[in-house]
Amino acid sequence: MSKSSTRILQVGAEIYPLVKTGGLGDVMGALPSALERLGLAVRLLLPGYPALRKPLTNVSLVCRLGPAFGAASVQVLLGRLPGIDVPVYLIDAPSLYDRPGNPYVDGSGEGWNDNPQRFGLLGWVAAYLALGDIDPAWRPQLVHGHDWHAGLAAAYLALHPHTDCRTVFTVHNLAFHGLFPQTLLPVLQLPESSFSSDGLEFHGEGSMIKAGLHYADAITTVSPSYAREIQTTAFGCGLEGVITQRRAQLHGILNGVDYTVWNSTTDPRLEAHFDAAHPEMKAAAKGALQRQLGLRVDPGAMLIGVVSRLTSQKGIDLLLEVLPRLLVENVQLALLGSGDAELEAACRALAAAAPGQVQVSFAYDETLAHRIIAGVDVIAVPSRFEPCGLTQLYGLRYGSLPLVHRVGGLADTVVDADDKALAADTATGFVFNAPTTQALEQAVRRALALYRQPDRWKQVVCRAMVQDFSWDGAAVAYADLYRRLLEAKPVRLTKRP
Ligand code: ADP
Known about the structure:
By secondary structure, this protein is an alpha/beta fold. The protein has two domains: 7-256 and 472-487, Rossmann fold; 279-468, Rossmann fold. 36% of the residues lie in helices and 18% in strands. The chain has helices at 23-37, 50-53, 94-97, 115-130, 151-159, 208-215, 224-229, 240-245, 282-293, 316-326, 341-353, 366-375, 391-397, 408-413, 419-424, 437-451, 454-465, 471-487; strands at residues 7-11, 41-47, 57-64, 75-80, 88-92, 142-146, 166-171, 179-180, 201-202, 205-207, 218-221, 250-252, 302-310, 331-339, 358-362, 378-381, 401-405, 430-432. The strands form three sheets. It has a nine-stranded mixed beta sheet with strand order 3-4-5-2-1-6-7-11-12, sandwiched between helices. Helix 13 (391-397) links the parallel strand 16 (378-381) and strand 17 (401-405). Helix 10 packs across helix 16 (437-451). It is globular and about 65 Å long. The structure holds adenosine-5'-diphosphate. The site of adenosine-5'-diphosphate (ADP) has 19 residues, from helix 1, strand 13, strand 14 and helix 12.
């Protein structure tokens, strides 16, 4: 098998910069190019949301499928998307994908009723591309599906009698399962036999994430620690059984950072640029942020930033609880997020009680995200669980020291500024051991103590900025996994019929 001829299909539900709700979009936007740079022939398969359908250029109609999955007509298009280096297959099914706003939920935040059909079709098209039925000119040798939205691809392929295509399934967040009722099996073109605990059934429902976990040739998670954690009841979301059974096929590959997008030296969204060689200009980014947000322009205030979905996963409630006790210490907070209504209300109340010191924005705003991550002193990620986490990695590059719970990818990427690490000049942030207000408060107080020693703080900032989490390393790990799978006989729990 020559490396340059290896054809890989990446399948997912979002892609930066066109459709993004979180880290999955960043990964889908960066990993394919990094794999291509290694000589793999990579293509993407995505749902044809208007935000992708409209900018698609060089479009060719690859296949017309007629009615399927509840859609009156389905076409598969091939084309190019701006900012994406690899060819893209789009599923053009307006009745399934032409909807306003978020790819997954309606205006009131509820999942679309027909999400099983919308994402079942994604997996189905992936599988039939691999079977050669959709594009006779290009048939992937390996399908790499991301999160529950692509979980059924592995099931369709494993359940098909004639395929030599390999499958990889990556868990970006085990908390989202993609459940569907048994009655939908015929609509989703799945055999009744798949609906068992030794298949894709999960407590009486179908589960797209379980399909990926059960049927894929290999499973990856987005950090080594998360790969270990999800084998336990504390982090396994009820799926620890199937994950433990498949331990031998489970790999943790840490996400990378796209340094063409997240780079303090070149970021076009910033007014001031800086790096480890010129850290002094970071003060200008901080001042600009304080001015923009209406915070008191005070270089001596330790400014904490949060850029996050507002859900219980992210532990923002812990931060909101300890902050009132810390505001007397000249600490500021700039928060950008959206999600849970109760958390938004708590953020609002804190901001109202501390004008000029706490500023909160509820939006999805890419430019403000960059400015916060660049302008703050500390980026807080107190997540209860965190498969990888990207904002702490962005914080490192911008010299904004991550303050994180020792869990998942946060544990794998931040070196706590304890005495030993400070002495060895390896410290890059602040890590606390338990998701409690006490542990978090102690970590913020440690950060504050270091912040008041500017020379030592600067040393940690410079160490943070030179950390290298580029995609190249992760891409090599994925390419190596693909190669091993393609060279080996497939290992599956379920015998093919
Ligand atoms: P998750 O995928 O669980 O949301 P990650 O840390 O892996 O968490 O990725 C989050 C990504 O989403 C980062 O790129 C972060 O900058 C971005 N992000 C989160 N909330 C917002 C927001 N309100 N506005 C802009 N970007 C955001």
